[in-house]
Amino acid sequence: MTTTTMSPSHTEPERSRLSRLMRELWFQVLLGAVLGITVGVLLPDVGAALSPLNDWFIGIVKMIVVPVVFCVVTQSIASMDSLRKAGRIGAKALGYFMVLSLLSMLIGLVVANVFKPGAGMNINLAELDTESIPGAGQAHGTVDFIDRIIPTNLFGAVTGNEILAALLVSIVFGCALNVSGEKAAPINEGISALTSVVFKIVGWVMRLAPIGTFGALASV
């Protein structure tokens, strides 16, 4: 009777490929999605209790969005040779934001009208309490839109949650740095260092995406 053994040279490459795959973020997200669906189907009560994982992840993402916008836009405009190019980039940034916001709203409308979430639940809309919904009862006209763009103070826009206000401040601040020349060099270096720190945090936050995906699908 003869026995065959796997040579170490054959098994080690397979293990190294598997370990590299496990370190890939997309694979971790996919694994979190599969585990979340499994828990949600087999243990729905446990899955419902895991919904804070998704809420916490979204909260962390929101926390870092405004600093990323400020650092990227400000540094990009400040480092340009011509302020005219900076103005075009600022206008494009605002345009992209508005177009993508409109696109996201259109996707939401299409999904709501095609899949009709909540249909058959026999809910009387007139009896729903909308006071707890953020922004409920507020005006959403042109004046209100402009009011939200203009911040109450310069640094409040960077520390707040209004993306448009942060974008406006970033554009103005970047233009001011651009025309200030050598006098603004220390500030440019500081923003460059801050950008490196912010993107390091972004990398850490993205590593939490599998956990957020797991919690979201488990609760759904």
Keywords:
Proton glutamate symport protein; 220 residues; mainly alpha
Q: What's the total count of β strands?
A: 0
Shape: flat
Mean pLDDT: 81
Q: What class do helices, strands and sheet pairing give? A: mainly alpha
CATH superfamily: Sodium:dicarboxylate symporter
Low-confidence stretches: none
- What CATH first level would be assigned? Mainly Alpha
Count of DSSP helices? Answer: 10
Task: Compute the separation of the termini in Å.
Answer: 55 Å
Q: Residue share in helices?
A: over 70%
CATH fold call: Proton glutamate symport protein
In CATH, the architecture is Orthogonal Bundle
Overall description:
- The protein has 220 residues and is an all-alpha fold.
- It has one domain: Proton glutamate symport protein, CATH 1.10.3860.
- The chain is built from 10 helices and no strands.
- The protein has helices at 8-23, 25-42, 44-49, 51-78, 83-115, 142-149, 154-159, 163-180, 185-206, 209-219.
